[in-house]
Amino acid sequence: MGGETTGRGRLDVADMRRRVGAHARERVIELLLTACGVVSIVTTVAILGVLVFETASFFAEVSLAEFLLDTRWTPLFVDKHFGIWPLVAGTVLTSAIAIGVALPFGLLAAIYLSEFATPRARSLLKPALEVLAGVPTIVYGYFALVVLTPLLQRFIPDLAGFNALSPGIIMGIMIMPMICSLSEDAIFAVPESMREGAYALGAGKLQTVFRVVLPTAFSGIAASVILAISRAVGETMIVAIAAGQQPNLTANPRESVETMTTYMVQIGLGDTPTGTIEYKTLFVVGASLFVMTFAINLLSQRLSRRFREGR
Questions:
Q1: What does the alpha-carbon distance between residue 75 and residue 97 come to, in Å, rounded to a whole number?
Q2: For the chain, what is the domain count?
Q3: Which residue among 12, 38, 65, 295 is the one 20 to 30 A from 107 at the CA level?
Q4: 232 and 303: one domain?
Q5: Digit-coded pLDDT (tens) for 188-202
Q6: Residue 66: inside a domain, yes or no?
């Protein structure tokens, strides 16, 4: 009896030690995860703080009316103008071309992979398509400049050597895997019972896809499109290489444009003295880009919420 009691006591002690050790490990992991979250929050707040401080310093020297109403952007010239719209126009133009290319092809590819491709074809084609996302953007940029632009000039004779069309198309190819992959996941996640219910009511394959599956997966598809738009708006190397660095308020994709990210690269090269008004434009353009992407995300959330409520 004494030996059994002693053995049981040793087991209880060993079990208690294991529980204490497991609790300690869980506590350490919890603290590490909390620390990662705190670091991300502090970093975000610090970035926003720098942007707000430098932007306020910029507007202490340049009026908001000049920033919003002027149509010229020449802060590096002797005759300085600080109208942001040429940079916004270049950014929106190239991003719109990219989405115009990526959305139909990416969504159709996602529909095929999820609804029509065999499991073997899906397992081969989806990773092959996602390889496009791993190509360095500088490679895309040089391809747009030395291959696509001369090719397009054969069909569009008045296309400039630096233009918005070529980098826009290449950006569309670059972000197409993002739309395809995320949309395919959203479509694939639609319950099979909804498809079977549509078939039971007499719907065909295409009717089921476009009237049942796609509306059900709208939230996921919208998220993929918003992420792709944010990726296109924030793209730097492709537009820096192939779009030119000429701030031009135009909607003509055949002309040279300068995007917001391209200008930030130009200022970030180190030739502009710190503390000058030219240097401060780096932060006001960054703040404007942040506001644009933040507004896009808010719009996407509102659309998704309204769509879910409508259903």
A1: 27
A2: 2
A3: 295
A4: yes
A5: 888 888 888 888 888
A6: no
Are residues 303 and 247 part of one domain?
yes
Q: What is d(CA 45, CA 275) in angstroms, rounded to the nearest whole number?
A: 22
52 & 95 share domain: no
Q: Could you tell me the CATH number of the domain that includes residue 219?
A: 1.10.3720.10
Q: Based on the domain organization, do 100 and 192 belong to the same domain?
A: yes
Distances in Å between the alpha carbon of 85 and those of 76, 221, 228, 249? 16, 30, 22, 7
User: Are residues 163 and 210 part of one domain?
Assistant: yes
| Structure token pair of residue 272 | 């502009």
> Residue 148 and residue 134: Cα distance in Å, rounded?
20
Average pLDDT value for residue range 17-38: 81
Do 130 and 38 fall into the same domain?
A: no
Domain that holds residue 35: 2-60
- Out of 60, 76, 108, a domain closes at 60
Residues near 269 by Cβ (< 8 Å), separated by ≥ 6?
Answer: none
Residue 41 CB burial class (10 angstroms; 0-12, 13-18, ≥19): exposed
